[in-house]
Amino acid sequence: MKVEIWSDIACPWCYIGKRRFEQALADFPGKEDVEVVYRPYQLVPDAPATASPHRAWLAERYGPQSVAMDARVAELGLAEGITYDFDAALHANTFLGHRLLHLAETEYGAEAQGRLKEALLKAHFTDGVDIGDRAALADVAVAAGLDRERVTAYLAGDEGAAEVRAQLAEARELGISAVPTFVFEGKWAVQGGQEAATFRKVLDQVADEIDERRPAPVPVAPAGEACADGSCAI
């Protein structure tokens, strides 16, 4: 089974959704046969190259409700083992990070890409790292197991840029407008940071659907909490 997770590095619900999906997958009997890959999505594609404080940017964009947004996500994150430090977090363009994730998948494999995704989310939301900075990204990548010389050369040029742009366009063609969105076997989509129990149910249903001996209905799950181009669930 292949699961493609369309998400952004700067999406708080993508972090929660990742952890909940991993919890469901850990208890899934067929987990060894599940390939998980991450696909790019940019909530703020026009974010400037120069980073700025997250709190100030969010307040400018959403007004007073931004405080409640951060507080609720931080509380929910604790239940998933995530520490959100929104005072330290920086608003930055995520395109370079998505290029790096593409490198990890194509040259190191899905498992390495998953490690890098986790490292980038932690760097952004917990450690206050500027994920739009090449040197900072290289440090995160090396800690996740990638080769520094290769990463530095890769980020210095345009390798992977066209491929990432093509995948961003593919997300639009698929009608993805909020993340995280989990696409199973290229056919079934589940949106939002669903509870682990919901993800487990979908995994079971998809496994049955692709097993000719045990046909099952197409899985349907109401949209969970997510971030869209204009807002995040609070």
From TrEMBL:
Transmembrane segments: none annotated. GO terms for molecular function: oxidoreductase activity. InterPro entries: DSBA-like_thioredoxin_dom, Thioredoxin-like_sf. SUPFAM superfamilies: Thioredoxin-like. Residues 3-203 form the DSBA-like thioredoxin domain. Pfam families: DSBA. PANTHER family: GLUTATHIONE S-TRANSFERASE KAPPA, THIOREDOXIN SUPERFAMILY PROTEIN. This is DSBA-like thioredoxin domain-containing protein. It comes from Kitasatospora aureofaciens (Streptomyces aureofaciens).
